[in-house]
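Practice record 12: protein with tryptophan.
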Amino acid sequence: MKLPLVATLPADSVAAARAELIADVRAGLGHPGPKTLPPKYLYDDVGSALFEAISRLPEYGLTRADERILRSAAPHIVGRLELPVLVAELGSGSGRKTRWILQALARRQETTYFPIDISAAALAQCERELGRLPGVRWIGLERDYSSGVAEVVARRGRDQRVLVLFLGSTIGNFERTEADAFLRQLRRALAPGDALLLGTDLEKPIARLLPAYDDPGGSTAAFNRNLLVRMNRELGADFDPARFEHEVRWSAAERRIEIRLRATSAQRVRIPAADLEVTFAAGEALWTENSHKYAEHEAVEIARRTGFRCEGEWVDREWPFAESLLIAH
Ligand code: TRP
């Protein structure tokens, strides 16, 4: 029996991940001024499961749009790649959408697929979903993006290209300037001819966008509040999640959805592991995420700015969303 391999975090990286969380909590909550935490902390095992639920909400059309594109365009996308390629996916989550690309690739080559995710539970679900596809070797990497990509690049054979999948508009969770910096850094880790399949959620009427991030059943609010509960679980904090409101706004200037947790009353929170006591004024916000929206073909300019060229773009019309194939030059 072929045993699929999950490269879990070594013990010293578990400690390093905790130290990073503590440092980010201190940096984001420990000073006067706006409170904020990096969105990646939303995705612990519980958060990843809650996001899986969000992706099935009727109001949140993004994931289904992405999957429709990948299902119908996978053979065309694969047809534009130089083969053979190793596949690395940034933030695989459950991996459900990725099946279409892997199946199209497996018809052309023996395919090795490295999902890279900081959640072990998400990787386990990805393995159930994609671990046994014929012609696909599944190697999960429990890593953050940059160390995961470095590891995949180090494993490439002499004639192999690398295809990086960055689906689902995760890029939109960076500030626009940070997104460019992230893609430039990714480009530096790659070689000319390597490819990046980049998902971007496109601008659409606010009346459709707001409910996607604030569903009536409260799944998205629970996902957002899980960040507080996570600090309670992992850092011994005493946040009362019921005293924080899930808030969603559209910023026309930044072309993004802004997500916050707003304190409904003045409160003091202890975070022992970070050696921190944080006070919230009534109405004060903790900024948890931005979700930038893009113009059609904006990926062409993003590519130009970051060391890639855009080789093709596929767009879903039902929920405007684009997948763009960028080639490193
Ligand atoms: N990357 C997803 C997005 O921007 C994540 C997401 C969906 C999200 N709903 C959310 C993040 C609510 C925070 C809060 O669409």
